[in-house]
Amino acid sequence: MTATSQAPDYGQEEPASEVPKVPTEPSGEGAASEPTGEEQAPMTTPEAPAPAASQAPDHGPEEPASEVPKVPTEPSGEGAASEPTGEEQAPMATPEAPAPEATTPAPRSEDVPSAPLKLTVEDVSDSSVTVSWEPPETLGSQGLQGYVLELRKEGASEWVPVNARPMMVTQQTVRNLAPGDKFFLRVAAVNPAGAGPPATLDQPIHIREIIEAPRIRVPRHLRQTYIRQVGEMVNLQIPFQGNPKPQVSWTHNGNALDSKRVSVRTGDQDSILFIRSAQRSDSGCYELSVRLETLEARAAINILVIEKPNPPSSIRLVDVWGCNVALEWTPPQDTGNTELLGYTVQKADKKTEQWFTVLERYHPTTCTVSDLIVGNSYSFRVFSENLCGLSDSPAVTKELAHIRKTEIVAKLKGFVERDFSEAPSFTQPLADHTTTSGYSTQLSCSVRASPKPKIIWMKNNMNIQGDPKYRTFSEQGVYTLEIRKPSPFDSGVYTCKAVNMLGEASVDCRLEVKALATH
After folding, report:
1. Which one of 41, 76, 197, 444 is at 20 to 30 Å from 100 when CA atoms are compared?
2. Distances (CA, A) of 261 to 4, 109, 252
């Protein structure tokens, strides 16, 4: 319905109901000789055209209709009888019938409201649009009944009303729209005299599907390297957002996925990467890309597939003295695709053949095993260890270490004693060490010398002998420095120097004391 067609509908309801009453009360000659515009609107008499044209400008249709019976002032007589009524002349009206548009007078501009003000689009979604406006400056002589909102699609000529009846609101939402719709909106104020001029939006409204930028929400446990063992299943579910549904793709180290090994299932809100039986070749960086037109979100997930390490490549007895044995081994060729946590060193007495652990998660590749029983013979073995556990097999010494008893040597007269003098040499050096503040730690090394050497401990080349913070002790050639409750200030380079009459030797290591973490 257009605004122009509404004008007569809202303003002419009551006058139209009163028009049929006019011809029922003819009281004299003047009643038929001077008809008004309202009286002739529904009649088609042959004499009506001239008076109707002269009365067309009359904009007061309601009041004249109520005064029609009072118009005649002359008594009835020959003059009254000589002027036939509209009903008698109706059959003769067809030759001279006027144009039909003159039958309904147009409302005056001061009777209808003016156009609403400030028609504005408040909100546009993918299925609705909300517009608002302000009341018109003038409401007309007969008040305001409400507003009529109309819609016209682009390319169409007809305005379609959104609300069938006027509504007393200044904001309205048009719903049930489809993406892609493009249309104009206008609103007109209405009162009993008709609809005023409409206020129309300058630009068409285009309903578009709302685009939600893509976003990937990586679970917390996947934000660091995801570790699986060989043969285990990999099942990663990565949620994402985006509207409309974005395009999702995966890459492995920048290349396309191997469809024979990796399967991907993507839904509306997540993507699942699945590997039935992981192999070490599946390790690497998997990147998820979620693209929506020119917008894109990426997330990288690092997967590490590991297995147990090989044992150390070789192990040998370096030296046996007193109740001590020095061992040395080489790292494994294959660490299981991850770093080693250390080595486990075990010993076994030949008599019992039971293995006992001496060191666990020990990082250096040399060690000294002490407190062995005199008279026994020992075998030693070393396991490698990573996150998967110990290596399936160890590296075992080929030779036995015999811990011999000290023999009594008889000295005969004239016997020249053999000189066993030897300059100091370290058979087990100091190892770099890291400890935590407040926990006492020890630094150990083994020295071989004859005569027995003098041991000097230094920190950063400064002698620390006599400092109550440090305690030194030795046992069968193994010298130990204990640092009591160290603090970060005690970090530095520690040196052990062995001196005898034949020479001297020294070894050093670096100690790092970390501050205790606070929460």
Report:
1. 197
2. 72, 80, 12
The secondary structure of residue 191, as a DSSP letter, is E
130-180 per-position pLDDT tens digit? 999 999 888 777 778 889 998 888 888 888 898 878 888 889 898 888 888
Q: Could you tell me the residue range of the domain that residue 498 belongs to? A: 422-514
Tokens of 321: 């003295």
- Residue 415, in any domain of the structure: no
Q: Is-contact 226 303, C-beta < 8 A? A: yes
Q: Is 449 helix (H, G, I), strand (E, B) or coil?
A: strand
Q: How far is CA 37 from the centre of its chain?
A: 74
Task: Quick: pLDDT tens for 286-320.
Answer: 999 999 888 899 999 999 999 999 999 999 999 99
Return the H-helix or E-strand segment holding 483. strand 478-483
**322 in the same domain as 296:** no
Band of the pLDDT at 416, cuts 50, 70, 90? low
CB under 8 Å to 269, separation ≥6 — which residues? 239, 240, 241
Q: What is the CATH number of the domain that holds 449?
A: 2.60.40.10
Strand partners, 300: 287
Is there a domain that residue 109 lies in? no
Q: Please name which of 275, 131, 255 lies closest in space to residue 204, comparing C-alpha atoms.
A: 131
